[in-house]
Amino acid sequence: MIFANFLYIDPGTGSMLFSVFIGAAATLYFLARAAWLKVKLLFSGRAAREALKEGHKKFVIYNEGKQYWNVFKPVLDAFEKRQTELTYYTSYKEDPVFQMDYKYIKSEYIGEGNSAFARLNLLEADVVAMTTPGLDVYQMKRSKKVKHYAHIRHGSGDATMYRLFGIDYFDSVLLTGDYQKEDIRTLEKNRGIKEKKLVTVGCTYLDELKLKMESIKPEENHKFTVLLCPSWGPSAILSKYGEKLLDPLVATGWNIIVRPHPQSKKSESQMLERLQLKYKDCSNLEWNFDADNIYALKRADIMISDFSSVIYDYTFLCDKPVMYVNANLDLRIYDASEVPGKRLWQFTTLEKIGIELKEEQFADIKNIIQNASDSPVLAQARKTAKEQAWMYIGKAGENIADFMINQQKEIN
User: Fold this and answer.
1) How far apart are CA 161 and CA 237, in angstroms?
2) Helix crossing, 345-353 with 376-389: angle to 10°?
3) Among 290, 216, 224, which residue's Cα sits nearest to residue 259?
4) Which of 81, 148, 176, 259 is placed for a possible disulfide with 288 were both Cys, Cβ 3.0 to 4.6 Å?
5) Cα–Cα distance, 208 to 75 (Å, whole number)
């Protein structure tokens, strides 16, 4: 009995030890990976030569994929308007930037994966901005000849919902709302790392989507539509519940739009393929993989989601009710796990703006949705959340351009 008590570890201590173990394992893994990448870089002759011959640049933006075009377009427009040159590197071969008639934006496709990282790791620039997390943690390493790295937040949710160490090694983080600052400062203090510049600029992609959504004409012969918009991973509702949720939704006879997270196609392709095959003959269920989510958002009368920040896209742009399934998200792989004693803003806010949907209610989901009425209380909660998380509406692109230009002047 004494021996058994000696071996007992209370849940709090166990959680802390697990986080320490995960952190140590991640550090060792990335150190080994970095060494391997350096070896590979020696053989990335073409990419290395291209980077070396480019010369020094004042401003650089890197876009890792098609879903981030709306984040960067307002910034590029702001630089173009100021007649200020900016280099735009993209890993999306069909990036819309190549269809734009920019004179001051110099755009180039630099490949994907290691090809792109080999180029970026040898970059010479004053200010580099990107949405890609994991600088100096994953494949993308800090170039010794880049003076300032800025991370642009591409979601209005908590800034600590990145995988561990996601924004630790940036020089600045450009936020969508002031509320995101406190948790970043807590992380910096707990980890003993240098404080970053934290500047609230607004949300470029919401600014861009707002303009696009206002131009969409109302749907003719509209039929009541439910939009299922999950996050990805084992805790997300589509992978966790699958048919348990889809079967009763299809049975309602309403239009059901399922819009999986973009990462699901990469990380959960088997699950998606299985569900798409099962429901291929259901005329009232459609799968949406559009680059822009606004067309699905515009059509929906109500959204069902989990912990995905798309809830806030829908809430802020459409001002309609949302339902959420409490997915009991395991935070141990996220930065948020190292901000003790505080619940995430997006979770506490979701409880105010959303209507919880429990697993035992799935079978009666038609009645649940029909009775999920809006209210002045929910409407006011949505308004408050929007004011907190989407500041400087319509001005984010200009604000980011201001920051980059002023930062470059400060550096030099």
Assistant:
1) 18
2) 150
3) 290
4) 259
5) 11
**Smallest Cα–Cα separation from 258: which of 236, 238, 241?**
238
Pairing of strands 197-200, 172-175: parallel
Angle value at C-alpha 343, between 341 and 346, nearest 5 degrees: 160
The owner of tokens 């010794």 is 144
3-state secondary structure 201-228: CCCHHHHHHHHHHHCCCCCCCCCCEEEE
- Residues with Cβ within 8 Å of 293's Cβ and at least 6 positions away in sequence, in order, are 209, 229, 259, 310, 313
- Altogether, the residues listed in the chain come to a count of 412
| pLDDT higher than 60, residue 48 | no
Report the chain's mean pLDDT, rounded to a whole number.
88
Per the structure block, which two tokens stand in for 284?
């009232």
Residue 52 token pair:
């070396």
Could you give the count of Cα atoms lying within 13 Å of 195 in the half-sphere of its Cβ?
A: 9
Tokens of 104: 């001051």
- The Cα 119–Cα 91 span in angstroms is 11
Distance in angstroms (rounded) separating the CA atoms of residues 347 and 404 = 32
Query: Tens digit of pLDDT for each residue in 316-348?
Result: 999 998 999 976 778 888 999 999 888 999 889
Q: Is 257 helix (H, G, I), strand (E, B) or coil?
A: strand
Instruction: Note the helical H segments in 176-293.
Output: 181-191, 204-214, 237-241, 243-251, 264-267, 269-278
pLDDT at 171 exceeding the cut of 60: yes
Q: What distance in Å separates the CA atoms of residue 389 and residue 299, rounded to the nearest whole number? A: 24
- Mean pLDDT over residues 227-233, rounded? 91
Coil, strand or helix at 81: helix
Amino acid at 399: N
Cα gap 284→249, rounded to integer Å: 10
**Residue 9 pLDDT:** 47
Q: Does the model's pTM come out above 0.85?
A: no
- Cα within 13 Å of Cα(135), Cβ side: 25
Report percent pLDDT > 90 for the chain: 73
d(CA 198, CA 114): 29
The two tokens of residue 295 are: 């067309």
Tokens (6 digits) for 59: 């401003």
- Residues 236/230, Cβ–Cβ less than 8 Å: yes
Least confident of 50-59, 171-180, 361-370: 50-59
